[in-house]
Amino acid sequence: MAVPKPDIFPGVQFIEYIEDIPALSEALRGSVRHHRHLCPRQVLGARIGLAGLQALATAVDQTKKELLVIAETDGCFLSGLEAATEVSVNHRTLRVADYGKIASTFVHVASNRAYRISLQPDVRQKAWSYTNGSEHRHYFAMLTGYQLMPGPELLVCKPVALKTPALKLISRPGIRTICDACGEEVINEREVHLEGKTFCRVCYGEDGYYSEQKEK
Question: Comparing C-alpha atoms, which of 101, 107, 43, 106 is closest to residue 72?
Fold first, then answer.
């Protein structure tokens, strides 16, 4: 599919990035196709996505089918991340561990090699220096600065080790069982086995996102 030209998105501030990350403009346009606007967090998602792919490419011979990305927030950030990497929740190549951080970990599934890409702590203030004094609105300063800032000035890249192996996180297709306590089906090997019985994680006692309420 051809990449839309900037004038298809009136008012969107694209910067032709032609130096060390030539794919950035294309990723941002891909994000705008779904998001209908461009914001600083989309730019950060795209920058982090491209940096993660670069980090893994220097360590292992990876393809996108061997990639798992764990994002630490949702929203606009994910739009840029998905456009840059082509990962997605529905293809089980993207997971969200919502820590409220602009960061993601990129995992080569077969080898379990992983890199976490996060932001340098002062990028909001650094963004001003990329506007040549012509922009007095912080939002648009960030929108420009995050596109132009060199990678090492914008991002931190560190090798990390997953607590749970990537293959176990992804699991195998077609695996399902029934919780002996609530009777609900459990897929993707998320069950817990105890004393010969099978439990979903909620019935096993792990903290869940909901609690049962008695009907009035």
Answer: 101
